[in-house]
Structures are given as structure tokens and as C-alpha cells.
Amino acid sequence: MTSTPKRSKFGIVGGLGAIGAADLLMKIIKSTPADGDHQQLDISFEQQPFDDAGAVADAGYNPNPRKFHVYNTLKGMERRGCKVALLPCFVSHSFIDEIAPELDLTVLNIFEATRDMLRRDHPHATRIGVVSSSYVRQRRLFDKALGAAYEVIYPDDAIQTGSVMPAVYGPEGIKAGRLSGRSVGWLAQACDNLTSLGAEVIVLGSTELPVLIEALRPRVARPILDVNQAYAELALAYDGASPPGTFRLGVVGGVGPAATVDFMDKVVRRTQASRDQDHIKMVVEQNPQIPDRTAHLLGEGEDPTIPLYATCKRLEAEGANAIAIPCNTAHAFVARIQQHLNIPIINMPTQTAVHIRATYPDVTRVGLLATAGTVRSAVYRDALDAVGLTLILPDAETQTGVMEAIYGSHGVKAGFTTGRCRDDLLAAIQHISDKGAEAVILGCTELPLIAPSGSASVGLPILLDPTDILARKCVALAKGAAC
Q1: Whether 327 is catalytic
Q2: Pick the catalytic residue: 82, 191, 312, 327?
Q3: Of residues 89, 312, 444, 474, which has the active-site annotation?
Q4: What is the pLDDT of residues 360-401, one digit of tens each?
Q5: Which residues contact 263 (CB under 8 A, 6 or more apart)?
């Protein structure tokens, strides 16, 4: 027995033209090659009526309220598991590029479907007549969508006003439920007008109009393209591949708060950009209520695993492509969290070890200044061992000074960046250098905030900032996703 491949769940936005959306749904069902109901597409039909008092008929229509309606409807579909959406409304496709970067589903383009059917069924036609609303006509939406290969022709002004608009929006029009009689006659007049203007193919550029296509065809001298059928065929041909989207970096913030800001600043500074839009999109949850990671590792505090995991899942739900945690100690919990996520956590200790080996090939002995929790977790020992580097740790007295620089009453977590906390850090750097470290990892994300800007003053050639290394990796991932 042959199993049917699982297809993506589709959503159809039905409230922007109920008759047209219902016609699209029926054409999808009729066109689906299936031996039974079990092989039909999984479709969520969202009928949320949108009342703009018929204003979309006007050339001066303001689409902004429609944008909010479309966005909210698509986000609702997204929450219900839809991976791809059909938006049977030509006006809405005029602004879909504004909405698409904020979505984690794919919206199939009805203009693309129309163009594909024209190329396939009418490969030699270049003069295309379009019957549509005055807004679509005035904005020349089909001209832009079909491109230079086609000359788009619209009805004369008198026909547009006296025939097309009443046929769709008038009291005897399609939107009023009149699917025969005068509406058919008016549309036939519009098609005849387009034929006289040289149209080789006529496109019904409103999703309600194909409902009357069988009544029109015997009365019109030119072939009429059914945009709903074209859209249905595009949906059936969809292979589940998503178009390239905007890379989103999820950031687990608040661990600690100042380190989060420092990390974001480094991402911005490491990004080559000539305008705001060139920078990386970041989704940040600043959650300082996550229990202290070091306290738990030392047996003195609550387990932060579930709060860290919950924060990562929220970032995943917000569409993050990868997650950065600008907290070294938190990486002691990454292995147990990662297996339950669908996106990667960029491992800061691992990236730091890889960076040292690639950038400083002559370095073999690396010192670590970090919280006692990070030291005890061995995340840096494991990362350095994996690339053949030897870890050097401070003695107990110096480690106490490092903890004081971080957690003390005059430490960096208390808001200090000079004075005693810096003196403690400088002493620790000198100590671990004397023990033979050729480079020193500042393995708490707050330590770079109090470290000297250069290493010459302490006689050490290399101070390594894992926050900056993590930021570089995030920028590289975003650049790779955009290529």
C-alpha cells in the first residue's frame, strides 16, 4: 500500500471576498488528485468578514485598515499550525511584502499564479486585458506584477465606472449575491471593450469574477483566464519550500541585563550596514527572573533549566532561526535544553575554542576567568579539550577575587565598572598569566565590561571576549542566511 506524502497545512483568508474565497476553495478540492477524502489538502478556511463599506472599489481607497486585518488573520492561522496561506484578494497582495517578513508562514502570490497560467496557456499573448476594481486599475498593480513582457489594458473610463464597478460592488452585483442577470451583461460589455482595445487574453482581476466565468465565455470573443483556478493550481504545486526570509536571532536576555545590552551592541557594531534595514533582526526576551546559574551549580539556588528552556521556546515561537545566550554559566544547561528545541543554540564556549584555534594557532595554554559555576561545569574545559588546548585555572584565592569582581558589593553586577572590581580582575589576569597562560578567556559576560581596553598594560598579549566572539558568529550566520 502506497502512503500519501504529508502536505503542509493550508490557510485560506476568506473574509476579504467571501464568494471568491469559496470559489477558490472549491477549485482546490476539485483539482486535487485524490482517491478519497483522506487525500485532500489539510485546509483551514478563515472567514472573518472585513467591513470597509465597499471603499475598495474607489481609486482613492486607503488600504491601511485592511493591512491590520490581513496581518491578524494570517498570524491566527500561523498559531493554528498553517505553514502556507492563500490570500484571494488582489488589493491585499499590493502590500503583502510589508507583512511577509513578520510571518512564519508562506503566502502564495496570486499575481505569480496568474503570470504562470498566462505563460503556460497563452505563451504568445502579450496584450492582456484586465477587469478589476478601480483601485487595482489606478495603482496599475497588474502592470507591475506581470512585468515588461506584457502590455496591460484596462477598460475605458466610462466602462469601468458604468459596467465593471456595478457588476461587482453595486446592488445588483456579485458581492450582493447577484450571480446572473445584469452583472453578467455588464462584465460582457467590459470584456468586449477590452477586445476592441486589442486584448488577446482577458484576466478577471478580482477573485469574485471567476464565479461568472462559465456564463461569460460564450459571450466573449477572447479567452478568459480564471485567476482562482490559477491560484488553486499554484497551491497544489507547492512543494513546501519556503522562500528566503529575514534571519531572526533570538536572545535570552537578563542573564545578566548589562551583558545582554553589551552583546546586542557588539552584534550591531560587527554588522556591516549602510542603513537601518541592513542590521540583524533580533527577538529579545529580557528575563532577569531566571534563577542564578552559578548559585544552582554550587548547590545554593533554584534550578534555572526550565526558565531557560521556556524562554528559548518563546523565542522559537516568535520565529527565531537561532538562539544566543550571552551568559557563559548558562551554557552548563544547554545540552539538556537543546534536544527539546527545533532551532540551534549557538554555543559560546564552543565558538570561543574554535576561534582561538583558528585565530591564534601558536597558542596552546589558555586561562579561564569565570564564575565558580562556569568553572565547576567544565563547559570550557570540554570545549578547549575538543580542539587540543590546555586549560589553566586560577588558584582558590584568585577565584575568590574573580567572584568578588562579579558579585561583590562593588562588583559589575552591582553596576560598577571601575575601582575594586577592575583591580580584582587585573590581579587575576596577572596571576593566570604568571601560571603560563598565553591567552585568557574572560568567561563571564560581565567581565569584558570592566576589562582594560588593551592587554599591553598587564603584559598579556591576548584577552578573549566570548561575547564578541558570539556576536561575530551570529552576524556570520545572518549573512549566510541572506545569501
Answers
A1: yes
A2: 327
A3: 444
A4: 999 999 999 999 999 999 999 999 999 999 999 999 999 999
A5: 251, 324, 326, 445, 467, 470, 471
